[in-house]
Amino acid sequence: MTSPTQTHLGAPQDVAPVLDVRGLSVTFTTESGTVSAVDNVDLTLAPGEIVGIVGESGCGKSVTAMSLAGLLPRSARVSGSARLQGTELIGAPESVLRAARGQSIAYIFQEPMSSLNPVLTVGRQIGEVLQVHQGLSRKKARARAVELLTLVGIPSPLQRVDNYPHQLSGGMRQRVMIAMAVACGPTVLVADEPTTALDVTVQAGILDVLRGLRDRLGTSILFITHDLGVIADVADRVVVMYAGRVVERAPVDELFAHPQHHYTAGLLVATPTPGRHAGTDRLQEIPGLVPVLSTQPDACTFAERCSAADAQCLGSAPALSSDHDVVAVRPDHLVACWHPCGNPSARHQGSRA
Amino acid sequence: MKPDTDVALEEVALELEDLVMHFGSVRAVDGVSLSIRKGQVTALVGESGSGKSTVGRCIVRLLEPTAGVVRIGGVDVTHLSRRQMRRHGKEVSIVFQDPAGSLDPRMLVGDVVGEPLRLQAGRISRRDREERINEELGRVGLRAEVARRYPHELSGGQRQRVSIARALISSPSLLIADEPTSALDVSVQASVLNLLADLQRDIGFACLFITHDLSAVEYLADDVAVMYLGQLVEKGSRERVFARPAHPYTQALLAAAPVADPPRQRARKAVLLGDDLPSALDPPSGCRFHTRCPLAFDRCTAEVPQLLGIGDGDAACHLVGPDGAGPDVRQTNSAGSLQ
Fold this sequence. Notes:
A: 2 domains; about 30% helix; globular; B: 12 strands
């Protein structure tokens, strides 16, 4: 445990988590029947920790995050538990959720332009948060807005505070969103694909800001992305989701070095990584398609695409556990698989050549 | 890898000569010269607003260039009329980023794929056409039944395969692939990239692969050209550009994309360029990258650097010598605009 990210606040398990999610399930009722979007998700977030949720579109990562603060539409049925500093959020009355939003849990999304009001200056929008939640006067709110813009690395904040969103670049807008989100000093910041719409040279700066918030303010961050490179960059621990379920959970170095679920291993080898493909002319693929689930089956949802699948995988769903006969798996490395990849040399079996 | 100059004309699949595309006062493409030899893949890399897609659209003549010359297979197609272009349309095809937006939702997949054959107005019987459609669908890894489905019934990856089938049914000598995998999930992305690589090797068409993601082209491209604000800043063989990027912008692009390997990623030093991409309405004086370049000095604001030979390829930077030697922003202490 010498890596900078893991020594940050000691081993996460030793500290009471600020966010403790257990058995979270979400189903949607649509015209074409019910869709099971999230199934029995467990996850924890320690103080000052960055946990990445990674998965492809439709895996339930955003739905999981949105369900925490009651941001899902009425058609969603949410069950299970999510405790934020001891307060239960699932099924909580609107008054409790409203108090929590902004103050204890805040969100930033992929597209800042659709979250910002185009006809208000950024100073007004940040100030509004402070006026409503902290009862600051307009003048004080503006002064605080300038401080927040400085915090998120916006140059010449005294001028920028009077800009309208359209006068800012995409990266600057996302910084404004971050400033609004952390205005009331939330314990947990949920960042849902915050850099996906941005160029890589801009992305690096935004990731820096988020890391800086964690380091300076101790904010815990739930970071949702489909990009394994971004996960490798910012996360302390990683939760891998597939078709609504958590399939693997581990500290970031451990996950990338010894992926145990065949889906994780497949994703890793399918991701183009500079230097790693020198000499080869193909990427490894994961065959098949992500299933769309009306009900979560009593089977491994990845079985159909997995080369290691057998009758057991199709007959019962593996639980997320560290109790496997695999040498490489540490106690803080959980996997939901009947036949984990095991030692690193078996890693490439996860996807067919 | 190979000399870029003095290639016999018939060897060249695509040649752009000082291509310019202005939209009113927006200088989207401002003097791009590039050539692709037959059967070769060139990646055109740049971030949003660099003008890379506009270059692609000028080549297939979805846009009429403001100035410059586009030659496909040695023929100047810059000013051909729509009708004349149709004859040449056979030579070049394009695949777009979003298959949901580029496939007509009211057409059956089979008709979508077969449409280029119908437009070519050659005498091809319905049976022959259906045969060709099935053959083409098979080639991109789709079952023949897919021909009787509508695009919305397919997944994103399957739809992109349909776009590729449509693009290749007329056996073009040049394929423009405009971010063909950017809208797809990682696992699907890999299979579409592999498909394109396989088809390119089997059929041997030349390809301009337009992308914002350098890592996606590393095992696919023969050459790489990097665009910034409407101009090329560097080109060269893939090996050289990845191993020894000469232009500070290329170096920053390579350093900025996070790698999926935590210890390696932590050891890398990010090159922070600042957020504000200058507007193509009013590009910076001198080197267009100077407002974000950590190494910029007086000359960069005043004098436009020319795209000059550096041994393997070209670079447009005052700091890069004719042998390709120059500073590396990944090594120097970056003074990016972030405090």
